[in-house]
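Translate sequence into structure tokens.
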Amino acid sequence: MAQSTAAPTPTTQAITPLPLRAIAPWAVFFGILMLVLLYFVGAEQGATAVLSGEGVHEWVHDARHLLGFPCH
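Result follows.
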């Protein structure tokens, strides 16, 4: 008895692009988040300090040096 095996036919799936309305809120959210993080790493504990004390400075101290921000 001979068995015949049919080769599966490849199917192509179209990739649908995401609409800008679906991406824009996430892009704005992450953009604002990055600006807040940049502020805390680069400018906190200076003339524009939002939080008092040395806590934020100690948490981001090495990141300041890594990014080239002066802190001493």
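Note: The helical segments are 20-42, 55-67.
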